[in-house]
Design a protein that fits this description.
There is one protein chain. The protein is an all-alpha fold and about 140 residues long. It has six helices and no strands.
Length: about 140
């Protein structure tokens, strides 16, 4: 079931084109991620999936490829930002990938709060500033 669900909505999390800027790319990723996190079925089971993943090898096998695919797409976003001269090539990619998804996941899935377009834009600006400041 988890694999089927992720096949339907999980891989579209970060399938966004080049928006022309790091901030624009991050905002597009966050909007796509928000769509997934607001999906009714995802909302009901996502936190349970994450708590169960370490205890259930089959679930881990189903979910990890989707998580890797999301990180690969984030790498592409970071590659574009490096090519445009917006961030250093030494940016910590692992942490950057964590930072892009985590605040929105926390707000929507854990706290049960809303995230409007203004919140997404503000978050994208803050993340882009953090990546630019990273040495």
């Amino acid at each position: 079931m988890a694999s089927d669900l992720l096949s339907q909505v999980g891989l579209t999390i970060t399938e966004v084109g080049d928006q022309g800027s790091l901030e624009g790319d991050i905002e597009a990723v966050l909007l796509a991620l928000r769509r997934v996190l607001r999906h009714p079925l995802v909302k009901r089971i996502l936190t349970d999936l994450h708590s169960e993943i370490e205890r259930t090898p089959a679930l881990q096998q189903a979910i990890r490829p989707f998580q890797r695919a999301r990180r690969e797409r984030i790498d592409g976003l970071l590659d574009r930002a490096v090519e445009r001269g917006e961030i250093s090539s030494s940016v910590d990619r692992e942490t950057a990938a964590d930072l892009i998804a985590s605040p929105l996941y926390w707000r929507l899935a854990v706290l049960g709060k809303r995230s409007d377009r203004h919140h997404i834009a503000r978050l994208a600006g803050m993340l882009a500033a953090a990546f630019r400041a990273s040495k």
